[in-house]
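Can anyone check this?
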Amino acid sequence: MFKMILFDVDGVLLSEERYFDASALTVWEMLFSPNYLGLENEAFTPTPQEEQIRSIRKVIFDDDFVLSFMKSRGINANWDMVFLSFGHQLISIMEQLLPEHKEELKEILAAQITKGAIDQLRALVNGKNLTVQYDSFVPDFSPSKAEKQELLLYLNHLAEQRLGITTEVFSRTSALWELCQETFQEWYLGETLTEESLGRPAIQKGKKGFLSDEIPIVEPKRMAEVFAQIKSRGITLGIGTGRPTIETLVPLEAMGLLSYFDPNRVITASHVLEAENKYPERSPLAKPQPFCYIKGWLGLDQSDSDIFNFVLPMQDADELLIVGDSIADYMAAKSIGCRFAAILTGLTGQEARAKFEELHADYIFDDMTGILSIFKDN
């Protein structure tokens, strides 16, 4: 039946909790750290304790209501979530600076929002008591029907609506998106690994990182048993994840799971970013675009042009199964035309069942071990 099964990682094999924590901390830092906007509402620290992390995430993402909304619109990458959340707050802050600083804001929105532009804004907000309204995200985005990467571009509409300034500066290929992405990486990797990963020292010193604090969804020994049984049927196992390479390989290796996957079929966000940088006209390529899963099917040894020229929907649809927890994974699988197994261990848990039933997912399982039921009669 299946020749290959490609697994998402977050929400399927490893808990998404630390990624969401790092996302919230990134938005928090960019709002309140003196290295970024430096708003005076809160004191920033690079070493928040667990209780403070829980509180920050609860507030930043409105008790995860914001995260659930983004996922329902096909946003799967934490980098995109950070960009959307911070970009939304940035527009709100700019609105509060009107009309006193409209000309400066026009200048900032006429070019890329770089670290230097953030420094300019920090000077404008200095000494001002500005309001941050995290629970306004969903009401502000709900009027739009935008999905996937179009949701990121909707920030341009909000800027024009709120500021009266026409701009195209908000996009996944923008300097601000890259700044959000790198700041997130500092939180997840920690200061020690940041320079190795980003090629520069950390802007903020003192972060310990979450890479050594990963949480498996199913006990690793049980996952290993599942993978071994599938492989015994001659099925190739691979990965298609929104995690960068180092954040994929290190925890899976530590848990004794990496060896079950064909190295030629382990596709990460690092490969997606590499392709986007090489072919900017093809961006965005992150999920729900099917790039990482097509590359997993064809293999890392195939060129990106082979991926782009792959005819969709694929002819041998019954030979590939994608296993994911998100709407973005489902959308990618449907683009390819292959089978999709929804796993209910993501952000919304069992609440996601009704949505996947509505979408007619091929399979729906409580956790990744349910995949074995596909083969019990074969």
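Reply from J.R.: I decoded it. The mean pLDDT is 95.
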